[in-house]
Design a protein that fits this description.
The chain is mainly β. 6% of the residues lie in helices and 47% in strands. The two termini are 14 Å apart.
Length: 115
């Protein structure tokens, strides 16, 4: 078998005290590879009711900026250091912030091709 998907690779440089993005979810799965420094990640529950409300098969058509954030119940809080990898499935709310120094990480987004 073969894997059929598109991928996007982004590089993020962050400084302490300034989150790159407010709390949000993505419409695709992604991997984080922490390259330099450390970054605190907070992962929140999926907002499954959004899919049901809009009768959508996945999150690809939802705009996170137009959705209400989840309740402040953190599923997991992680401090990624250089060499650490984190997988975040689509739809999970999250936010991240550099800690004591600059932080550099790669994000590899997966966009499956539906045939």
């Amino acid at each position: 078998s073969e894997l059929v998907a598109r991928f996007a690779l982004n590089l993020y440089l962050s400084v302490p005290g300034y989150p790159g993005y407010p709390i949000h979810f993505d419409s695709h799965d992604f991997l984080i590879l922490q390259i330099y420094g450390s970054k605190q990640w907070e992962i929140y529950p999926r907002t499954l009711s959004q899919l049901q409300q809009h009768n959508l098969p996945d999150y690809s058509q939802l705009d996170a900026s137009q959705q209400p954030p989840p309740p402040e119940s953190i599923l997991q809080s992680l401090n990624l250091k250089a060499g650490d990898v984190l997988y975040v499935p689509k739809g999970y709310w999250h936010r991240a912030q550099a800690q004591d120094e600059r932080s550099l990480h790669l994000t590899l987004g997966f966009y499956p091709a539906y045939v």
